[in-house]
């Protein structure tokens, strides 16, 4: 390595420490890259292969996996090369700006995408009829294109030195140069990221309040209607009985008032359809909130260090803390597939169905009878 020889001439213990630290960094980052690529590729193949997962929330999940795959395959190897070279960027300034642009692009992409997903989750719970009609495949494509456009708009200005991209040796990567606030032009980008993440949590809190309020609703006190041959009249005549007959739950001859209206075929599970959809939407909302929470937890230490460098003049952040904070942002790319499989039962079931070779074989139980 470039710097360890100089350290070794002055102090052999410092050389051993630098070699050990570099080895730990390389091993941990290599594990993160392998885990991220394996997990996100496997999850992407599952969504693409299984037609039952071709739904709105999983289109967004596919885009999230795509971004993490590119980030792990393109940005992280340059960090490993800089570690091998002794915390030195050995390429051109333009290449450093390109790598930094991609790193910031993927950061804002995740933030914007999780915000849009939170809005769609709220719509799926609070305005399900509108959501089911409007959230088609092309709507998802439009939202994803909008997210990428906003991310490019946030990450592109520093290429022209509006918030300079620079190689930061303490972080082993090309990223924003976080200077003191009087000489800083990256504060706006950091504030925007904080606002997006905070607004996303506000939307989820609003959705949680909506679900809690509707769980506490008291049943309506209805006045019974008067029936004469399916002709309902009186204060309680809401038309529900006729609607039930049209839905396929009525028996006997056609009521006189409904002559000419075709009755739907009876389905024993039709009564539970709305409840099952609600449970599914709530389960997917929980999964996405855990992804959002994981994003906040993994990025919070690094964001705190950025604000300290911006607002505290001549601040000295411990190198161990800064390295751990940067590596946590790298680990976030590998955490999303794990969170998805832990908090989404449907993904686990479809994974067992689509990839039975990845599961351990179980010994079949022999049938028995009770004597």
Distance between the termini: 75 Å
Oligomer: single chain
The low-confidence runs, each spanning 5 or more residues with pLDDT under 50, are: 231-238, 263-273, 361-371
Assess the beta-strand content as a share of residues: under 5%
Q: What name does CATH use for the topology?
A: Rhopdopsin 7-helix transmembrane proteins
By CATH's scheme, which homologous superfamily applies? Rhodopsin 7-helix transmembrane proteins
How many structural domains?
1
The string of secondary-structure elements, in order, is HHHHHHEEHEEHHHH
What would you call the shape? globular
Largest sheet: 2 strands, antiparallel
Number of strands: 4
What structural category arises from helix and sheet content? mainly alpha
Instruction: Please tell me the overall pLDDT.
Output: 78
Number of helices: 11
CA radius of gyration is 28 Å
Please identify the top-level CATH class: Mainly Alpha
Q: Roughly what percent helix?
A: 55-70%
Query: What's the arrangement of strands in the largest beta sheet?
Result: 1-2
What is the CATH architecture term? Up-down Bundle
Describe the overall structure.
With 371 residues, the protein is mostly helical. The chain has a single domain, classed as Rhopdopsin 7-helix transmembrane proteins. It is built from 11 helices and 4 strands; from the N terminus they run ααααααββαββαααα. It has helices spanning 4-10, 12-49, 56-84, 93-126, 128-134, 137-155, 187-215, 240-247, 273-311, 319-343, 345-354; strands at residues 165-168, 173-176, 226-228, 231-233. The strands form 2 sheets. It has a two-stranded antiparallel sheet. A two-stranded antiparallel ribbon has the order 3-4. Strand 3 and strand 4 (231-233) form a beta hairpin. Helix 3 packs antiparallel against helix 4 (93-126), helix 3 packs parallel to helix 6 and helix 4 (93-126) runs parallel beside helix 7 (187-215). It is globular and about 85 Å long. The protein starts with a helix and ends in a 17-residue tail after the last helix.
């Amino acid at each position: 390595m470039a710097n360890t020889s100089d350290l070794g001439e002055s102090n052999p213990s410092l050389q051993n420490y630098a070699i050990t630290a570099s080895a730990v960094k390389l091993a941990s980052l290599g594990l993160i890259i392998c885990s991220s690529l394996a997990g996100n590729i496997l999850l992407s193949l599952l969504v693409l292969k299984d037609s039952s997962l071709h739904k709105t929330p999983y289109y967004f999940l596919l885009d999230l996996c795509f971004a993490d795959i590119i980030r792990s395959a393109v940005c992280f190897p340059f960090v490993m090369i800089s570690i091998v070279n002794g915390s030195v960027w050995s390429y051109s300034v333009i290449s450093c700006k390109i790598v930094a642009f991609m790193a910031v692009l993927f950061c804002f992409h995740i933030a914007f995408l999780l915000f849009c997903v939170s809005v769609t989750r709220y719509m799926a719970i609070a305005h399900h009829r509108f959501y089911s009609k409007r959230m088609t495949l092309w709507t998802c494509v439009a939202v994803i294109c909008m997210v990428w456009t906003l991310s490019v708009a946030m990450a592109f200005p520093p290429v022209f030195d509006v918030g300079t991209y620079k190689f930061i040796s303490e972080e082993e990567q090309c990223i924003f140069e976080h200077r003191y606030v009087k000489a800083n032009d990256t504060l706006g980008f950091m504030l925007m990221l904080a606002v997006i993440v905070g607004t996303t949590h506000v939307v989820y809190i609003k959705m949680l309040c909506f679900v809690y309020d509707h769980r506490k609703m008291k049943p309506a006190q209805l006045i019974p209607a008067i029936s004469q041959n399916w002709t309902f009249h009186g204060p309680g005549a809401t038309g529900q009985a006729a609607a039930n007959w049209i839905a396929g739950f009525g028996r006997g001859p056609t009521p006189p008032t409904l002559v000419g209206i075709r009755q739907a075929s009876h389905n024993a599970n039709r009564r539970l359809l709305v409840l099952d959809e609600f449970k599914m939407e709530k389960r997917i909302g929980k999964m996405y909130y855990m992804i959002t929470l994981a994003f906040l937890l993994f990025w919070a230490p690094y964001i705190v260090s950025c604000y300290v460098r911006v607002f505290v003049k001549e601040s000295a952040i411990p190198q161990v803390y800064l390295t751990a904070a940067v590596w946590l942002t790298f680990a976030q790319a590998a955490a999303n597939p794990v969170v998805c499989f832990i908090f989404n039962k449907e993904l686990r079931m479809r994974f067992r169905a689509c990839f039975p070779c990845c599961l351990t074989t179980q010994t079949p139980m022999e049938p028995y009878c009770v004597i």
